[in-house]
Amino acid sequence: MTAFYLKLFITPALMWAISSASRRWGTQLGGLLSGLPVTSALVMLFLSLEQGSAFVARAVPGALAGLAAIQATYLFYFLVTRRVPALLGCLAGLGFYALTAWAISRLGGVALPVLITLLLVTAIVIVTARQPAPPAASGPVVLPRWVIPMRMLAATGLLLAITASAEWLGPTASGLVAPIPVIAWPLMVFAHVQGGRHELAAVVRGNAIGAVGVVGFYLMLAHGVPVWGALPSIGVAVLLAVAVTFTLARWLNRR
Is 16 inside any structural domain? Predict the structure, then answer.
């Protein structure tokens, strides 16, 4: 029962903090923060508490496949919305994500999903760098008031759904849905609709950079959980993800 109340408190609090920071300091930072393994870390934390460390270790390959599918979907959305409206791009993107996640999960293992993710991140960074800046008069993207509560509810609902059905889903499927971007997807779509393609590019690029840190997060879990157990490994993995993400972002901004 204690774990249930922790889910209800921690998850929406983190979503509110990240969404508020994105609204205050811009979509580029929002993309970076939304790319961090916030939902994933919470899912893995509660899976470890309720299903055990071995379950978490077996969920990592599925999580990496899901991460690769997410980056493929962001690139797909960025490219396809050059020719179609955002709503149609969203619907097509959801179908593309489901198909891609299934296909990559069939590959099995860790190495191929990691390689696919890194190749997609490279492609996203290159493609989004070519997006021209908007006129100087353009203002910041203002999100509707209901967006942050919606993200909080979506993240909490996702966490409750995954952890409640984990025994039925199994470790692979639980891992596959753990990285679902409940923060980044709404941020990306609203940035696109209200701020145009330059704002969309900033979110997609930031999230892709964050994905490199998420790769480090899952690799740390894969190697750390059998040795240290789930809780210490998750803590170290989160710190690694943050360090990798902001180091890479700083290096790319200098270039």
Answer: no
What residue numbers bound the domain in which 42 lies?
2-11+30-133+146-254
Q: Is residue 139 part of a domain?
A: no
Residue 231 placed within a domain: yes
pLDDT at 207: 87
- For residue 129, being part of any structural domain is answered with yes
Polymer length in residues for the chain: 255
Q: What is the number of structural domains in the chain?
A: 1
Question: What pTM, to 2 d.p., does this model score?
Answer: 0.82
Mean pLDDT of 90-107: 89
Which residue matches tokens 């490994």? 233
191 burial class (0-12, 13-18, 19+ CB within 10 angstroms)?
A: buried
Residue 26 reports pLDDT greater than 70? no
Q: Measured in whole angstroms, how far is the alpha carbon of residue 29 from the centre of its chain?
A: 14
Helix orientation angle between 147-164 and 38-51, rounded to the nearest 10 degrees = 30
Say which residues have a Cβ less than 8 Å from residue 98's Cβ, sequence separation at least 6: none
